[in-house]
Design goal:
Protein name (chains A, B): Aspartokinase
Family (chains A, B): Belongs to the aspartokinase family.
Structural class of chain A: alpha/beta
Radius of gyration of chain A: 24 Å
Distance between the termini of chain A: 34 Å
Number of helices of chain A: 12
InterPro entries (chains A, B): AceGlu_kinase-like_sf, ACT-like_dom_sf, ACT_Aspartokinase, ACT_dom, AKii-LysC-BS, Asp/Glu/Uridylate_kinase, Asp_kin_monofn, Asp_kinase
CATH architecture of one domain in chain A: 3-Layer(aba) Sandwich
Enzyme class (chains A, B): transferase
CATH class of one domain in chain A: Alpha Beta
GO molecular function (chains A, B): aspartate kinase activity
CATH topology of one domain in chain A: Carbamate kinase
Helix content of chain A: 25-40%
Largest interface: A-B, 36 and 36 residues
Oligomer: homodimer
Strand content of chain A: 25-35%
Number of strands of chain A: 20
Chain lengths: 412, 412
C-alpha cells in the first residue's frame, strides 16, 4: 500500500481532545488506503518546561543529558496518539527514535540523520498495522545515546521518513493553513499559494515566513519529497494547504510568488575604506569570527583609492559587529574614516523562480517603490530573489505596493 | 570500589532544588569511596498526569503504549540528576531502562525483571564514572518494547540493581525516616526501629505500613540485599533510618517488633453451612474467581452437621463477595441460612520474628485486649504474626494498649 507521512506540531497535539481531532484526520487517510507514518511533536509547552529545568540546573549542560531529557515529550505524544488510534479501531503502535532506529551522528542537540532502516516498520505494515506513530525530533547515536535534531526537528524527521519509505507525500499539519504570497497581517490581499517550489520556499522561510524548518525543505528538495503544509484546525480536502514541490510540477509558473520582509535588519556602512585587494576578507573575516550573520553586501565605486562598504545584519548583532570592526581597526588590519549603523531599516524581497527566465522584474520592483516615494538604500539580488533595504516606516507600504504590482492577489 | 545503590522517590526529586539536595547526599557517598548507582522515580505528580491522559483517551488501553507513556517521567529525572551531579564535578551519566538493558518479561505494566547485565555500567565505572543514574520503574521486553514494573516499581528496580552489582547496601530515600513500631499518628509513643527482619517487614508492609513495595522486600530477602529506609529530607548519619535485613543480623531479638492495623477490613459470615468435605473449596473457589482477597478464615465447630464460616476481606470487596456467594447458592453449589456482613471492624496485628521461639505472645495479646474491654471477633495466626478483628471504634485503643504491653516504646 502507498505510504503517507503526516506530521503534527505541538499546538496540534496540545491536549487529548486535540490528539483525538488529528487522529480523525489520520483515519481519513487510512480509509483512503494509505499506510500512514505519523510524526508527532511534544504537547505544546512541554519541551519549554524540560529545557527550563535543564537551564535551572546547568547553564553549560552536557548535551547528551540535555537530549535524554528534552526528547521525552515526544515519547508521551507518540504513545497517546497510538492509543487514540487504537480506540478508533485503527491498528497502530508507537516508536521512539531508538526503536526505529533513526540513526544520527553524535552531534547532540543538533544531530544529522544518517539512516532510517525501514525494515521494522515495513514488517509491521505487512502484518496489518496501519499507522506507525513516531516520536519526532529524536534519534540514537552510534554510542547508543539519545540525540535530538534541534528545535523544529520534527519537520526534518517527517521529511526523512518520507524519503526513507518512498512516501507519496509528506503532510505537515501546523497552525497556519498554508504558505501565503505575503503576510496577511500586512497585506489584506495576501493569497494562499496552491504550490510553491522548494527554492522559493527556502528563500521565503529564511526571510521570515516561518512555516517550515529550513532544513526540512532542503532535505525534501534533495530527495524530491512532496511536502504539503496545511492547518490541523480546519477540515481539509485533498487540495488544501500549499504543496512545496519541484519547480517542474508547478504548471502556473509566475514571475514572483511572494513578497517577504524582515524588520530585524540593520544597515552598517564603513565610510572611506582603503580600496585594496583583500579588503573584503579583512572586513568580513572578523565579522564571521564574531558570529555576525552578514546578509547583503554592497561596495560602492572607489574614488581616490577609497570606497564605502555597506552591509546588513540582524539588528541585535550591531553591537557585536561594531566591536569586531573597531578591534580590527585598532589592530591595524583595516582602516576606515567612520562606522555608521542604521537600525531603522527593513528588508523587503520579491521571490520567484519565474525571474530566471523573465527580465524586467527588478525594474518593475524599483519603479513601484519609486512611485510610492520610497528610497532604496541597498539592493541585493540572487537568481530567484531581489531584496532591498528601505526605511522601516515604509515597510508595510512597500509590501502592499509590490504585492499589487506583481498581481499576487490574483490566481495564476 | 564498593557499589552503593541509592533510590529517591518522587517527592525527593519533585523540583530542581530537591534534586540538588539529594545530589549532595549522593556526593557524600561518592566522597566515601563508593561507586554509586542512583535509581530515580518521576518527579511527584508527573506519573499521575501521564496516567490521567491515558485514562482520558482509552479506558481499556494497550498496556504496551501505556508503558511507553508513563515511563517517560523517570527519564526526565534521570537526565536532570546526572546534570546536577556533573555540575558538582562528579562524573555521572543517565541510563534509561533499555540502555542498561534492564530486561523484563512481556507482562506490560506489571513486568518481572529477568536480567540486568552489569557490563555496560561496570565498564563506565572502570573509566572513572562515579555515579550511574538509572531511570526506575522501567525495562525492555524481549520484543524491544518498553515495560514498566507496576506502581512503586522503582523500589524493586533499586533492589534488583543492588543484587546484580553485589552492592554493599541499597538505601531507599523516602518521605519518612524509617520503619516505626506502629503508626505515630495513633500511638504517640511509637519508636523508629533501627533494624527489622525481611519477614517482619513483609508482614508490616502488607498490613498497611506503606513504606516499601512488598515485591522489593521479597526480592531483597531472596538475594539477601541489605535495605535501608531513610528520609531524604533530613541530614543522615550512617546509622540513620531503618535497616531491613536477614534476621541473623538482628542482635537485639525482640518478641514483637511492631503493631500493624487496617481499617479497610470487613467480616463476613455464612451462617449454618452444611458441613461436608469440600465445602471450603466450594465457598472460596467462587470468591477467588470473583477477585475477592480473602484474608482471615475461621470455621466454627460443627453442630448437627452444620457450621458457621467466617472470613475477612477488604471493605470495598464486600458487594462482590455477596454477589459471588449468592450466585453459588443459587447454582446449588453451596447452602447456607444467612450471609452476614460486618463492615464496622478493624484488624490489629502484632508482628515479630521472636514469636517463633517465645510462647505466650498470643495469651498476652488477648489478655491486654480483655483488660481494655475489647471483644475479639476473629483470630488468625501465622508463625510471626497474630491478627485479630475487633470493633473499629476500639482500634486506636487496641494499638496503643498492645504497643505498651509489648514494651515497644522502649529500646530493645
Amino acid at each position: 500500500m502507498p505510504v503517507l507521512v503526516m506530521k503534527f506540531g505541538g499546538t496540534s497535539v496540545a491536549n487529548t481532545d486535540r490528539i483525538r481531532r488529528v487522529a480523525k484526520r489520520v483515519g481519513v487517510e487510512v480509509a483512503k488506503g494509505y499506510d500512514v507514518i505519523v510524526i508527532v511533536s511534544a504537547m505544546s509547552g512541554t519541551t519549554n518546561q524540560l529545557v527550563g529545568w535543564v537551564d535551572e540546573i546547568s547553564p553549560l549542560y552536557d548535551a547528551r543529558e540535555y537530549d535524554a531529557v528534552v526528547s521525552s515529550g515526544e515519547n508521551v505524544t507518540a504513545g497517546l496518539m497510538a492509543l487514540t488510534l487504537q480506540e478508533m479501531d485503527i491498528p497502530a503502535r508507537s516508536w521512539q527514535g531508538w526503536q526505529v532506529p533513526l540513526r544520527t551522528n553524535s552531534s547532540h542537540s543538533a544531530a544529522r540523520i544518517e539512516d532510517i532502516p525501514p525494515d521494522n516498520i515495513t514488517a509491521k505494515f505487512a502484518e496489518g498495522m496501519r499507522v506507525a506513530v513516531v516520536a519526532g525530533f529524536q534519534g540514537i547515536s552510534p554510542e547508543g545515546r539519545i540525540t535530538t535534531l534541534g528545535r523544529g526537528g520534527s519537520d526534518t524527521t517527517a521529511v526523512a521518513f518520507a524519503a526513507a519509505f518512498g512516501a507519496e507525500r509528506c503532510d505537515i499539519y501546523t497552525d497556519v493553513d498554508g504558505v501565503y504570497t505575503t503576510d496577511p497581517r500586512i497585506a489584506s490581499k495576501a493569497r494562499k499559494l496552491d504550490r510553491i517550489a522548494f527554492e522559493e520556499m527556502l528563500e521565503l522561510a529564511s526571510l521570515g515566513a516561518k512555516v517550515l524548518q529550513t532544513r526540512s525543505v532542503e532535505l525534501a528538495m534533495r530527495y524530491n519529497v512532496k511536502l504539503r503544509v496545511l492547518s490541523s484546525f480546519e477540515d481539509q480536502g485533498d487540495e488544501a494547504g500549499t504543496l512545496v514541490c519541484a519547480e517542474e510540477e508547478i504548471m502556473e509558473s509566475r514571475i514572483v510568488s511572494g513578497i517577504a520582509y524582515s524588520r530585524e535588519e540593520a544597515k552598517m556602512t564603513l565610510v572611506s575604506v582603503a580600496d585594496r585587494p583583500g579588503i573584503a576578507a579583512a572586513i568580513f573575516g572578523p565579522l564571521a569570527e564574531a558570529g555576525v550573520n552578514v546578509d547583503m553586501i554592497v561596495q560602492n565605486i572607489a574614488e581616490g583609492g577609497r570606497t564605502d562598504m555597506t552591509f546588513s545584519c540582524p539588528t541585535d548583532q550591531v553591537r557585536r559587529a561594531e566591536k569586531a570592526l573597531t578591534a580590527a581597526k585598532d589592530a591595524g588590519e583595516i582602516n576606515y574614516h567612520d562606522l555608521l549603523a542604521d537600525t531603522d531599516v527593513a528588508k523587503v524581497s520579491a521571490v520567484g523562480i519565474g525571474m530566471r527566465s523573465q527580465s524586467g522584474v527588478a525594474a518593475r520592483m524599483f519603479q513601484t517603490l519609486r512611485d510610492e516615494g520610497i528610497n532604496i538604500k541597498v539592493i541585493a539580488t540572487s537568481e530567484i530573489k531581489i531584496s532591498v533595504l528601505i526605511d522601516r516606516k515604509y515597510m508595510e507600504l512597500a509590501v502592499q505596493a509590490l504585492h499589487d504590482a506583481f498581481d499576487l492577489d490574483k490566481a495564476a
